[in-house]
Design brief:
361 residues, alpha/beta, 7-stranded parallel sheet, two-stranded antiparallel ribbon
Amino acid sequence: MSDETPPKLPPPKLLRALAGETLARPPIWFMRQAGRSLPEYRELRTKAADFIAFCHNPEMAAEATLQPMRRFPLDAAIVFADILLIPRALGQEVWFEAGEGPRLGELPEIARLAGQVEASTERLSSIGETLARVRAELEPDRALIGFAGGPWTVATYMIEGRSSDRTGARTFAYEHPDKLDALLEVLVDSTARYLVMQAKSGAQALKIFESWAEGLAEDVFERIVIRPHQAIVEKVRAAGVGVPFIGFPRGAGALVDSYARVVPVQGVALDTQASAELGRRIQAGGKTIQGALDNLLLRAGGPALDARVEGLLAQWSDGPWIFNLGHGVLPDTPIAHIARVVERVTGKSVKALALQEAMKA
């Protein structure tokens, strides 16, 4: 029997990039990679009573999380869940209508929501079980990401009751600033607790999806996006969790600069409109960038997709970055287009990987 200590494996590429390392090639994963673009996901989805039941079923959600990892040589998995599980856990009615998306009941009194913060974490414990299942099966060189919706984005759904252009929620922010601030405070507290639970369950990085950060005046952006994100990170750190954060203020445009400077995240995800110069400025400021391939271009494919991938690789590879989209994979995106991008970035054959998985089975 040998007394030699086995060699320590290097951290996953995603974590190395988030630590500020410039790698020979960027790690790659896609937002909404575990979802409707994969036939195996659509088959699995038919076995759940509804979408929320699917999210809260650890066996099924873990399978959905792992499906794209089996098909593509991606460097990170992101847990299969939804940003609107928190309002439901806080006591607001939430459901999904086929072909139309989420629906929410009337916004409860803020004091009532505040009284449910501690209980909300327990009601989301199934997501922790999903993460533990995935981490146990996922290879050690591939990272696992947990996530939550940004407080402002979640609040827009809670206020308006559905996906919209956010006009109602932005008007609410001006007409009822104290009430919105109180709602955001509840969401900061519940989100921080939720993310702590995810990290303790196996998530190695945490992402805040502020999907609806567009159209906000600078002072409003600071109040309802920057400050809540700062507070979430601070609360998670105060709980003893040190995993890296990725912040995604989608649609924020020029305000992304200030976000990157003052929010204590390690990575800043960029949307489709992000310029090469913006990304380089953020890298020069000591943070990792992620994005910003257009999901519509991924769906369209062809020479324009190839050219954009090459352009992104050329413009940001001198600093720490993660290859990703500027928004999530669309349901009707051809798998061949995803495979082509993954192969170009990783240098690994998707077909060869699929064959290896088939032989294992």
